[in-house]
Amino acid sequence: MKRILLKISGEAMSSDTLAIDPIKAQSVAQMIQDIKKTGVELVIVLWGWNIYRGSSLISAGVDPADSHNMSMLSTVFNAVTLKNFLEKMGEKTVVLDALHVEFLETYSAMRAREYIAEWKIVIASSWGGTPFFTTDTTGVLRALETHCEAMIKLTQVDGVYDSDPKKNPDAKKYDTISYNEFISNNLKVLDQTWVIMARDNKLPIFVTSLWDTQAIIDLIAGKDVGTKIS
After folding, report:
1. Among 102, 103, 99, 145, CA closest to 122
2. Residue 213 CA to chain centroid, in angstroms?
């Protein structure tokens, strides 16, 4: 693969005591740099759950659209933090934002592709700029817009299972699974709406472990790692 989108959980940036832990952020930046050294072009989408989780506030009566908008803003914190750590390591990086945050460049697919062609890492923040979607939806959308060959979703486990492997020791891991099988089995690791979008646009989605850099590099090289949804 020559160009990929990495979808990274916001929890990768946090620790038990800090919403954004500099040591964890440095580790994420190092992982990204190691991946980029293989010659692949990178687009990154970060979630913001380490900073804001809106479900409890929605349950308490906060308007869902307002809560989702706050969630979008939380991704800006992660994106700007990661950009700084990557630049300290010598990686040219740009954050393109969907909500027109004043101190960031506004996202456009054409601008993103131009920066990628200049060998810059592009981080897309603020989801797609609208509530009621997720960063999974944004990942597929941005991957399609920037002509990525695949989206790689990095999680706390090493693939897609038929149940939570942290709770069920007998959970079955899928090496490969079709889009339609993923949807019919009601698997929760990825937003199903955008599995449909990936299916309709023939974008493969890979799911693998967040902290196994070598596994991610092997996956990009075409080896069988994690789970492939296609």
Report:
1. 145
2. 15
Cβ atoms of 209 and 217 closer than 8 Å = no
Q: Which of 108, 124, 117 is nearest to 3 (CA)?
A: 117
The label of the residue with tokens 């080896």 reads: 223
Three-state DSSP string of 176-188: EECHHHHHHCCCC
Token code pair at residue 190 = 């990825």
**Residue 230: C-alpha distances to residues 138, 198, 200 (Å):** 18, 8, 10
pTM: 0.94
The per-residue pLDDT for range 137-151, each reduced to its tens digit, is 899 999 999 999 999
Of 126, 123, 22, 23, give the one whose Cα is nearest residue 74.
126
| Distance from C-alpha of 10 to C-alpha of 188, rounded to nearest angstrom | 17
Domain span at 87: 3-229
- Is 150 within 8 Å of 1 (Cβ atoms)? yes
Angle formed by the axes of helices 213-220 and 22-36, to 10°?
A: 30
| Total number of domains constituting the chain | 1
**How would you classify the pairing of strands 105-106 and 41-46?**
unpaired
In the chain, % of residues over pLDDT 70: 98
Closest listed residue to residue 122, CA positions, set 152, 142, 151: 142
Q: What CATH number has the domain bearing residue 173?
A: 3.40.1160.10
Give strand pairing partners of 162.
Answer: none
Helix (H) or strand (E) holding 106: strand 105-106
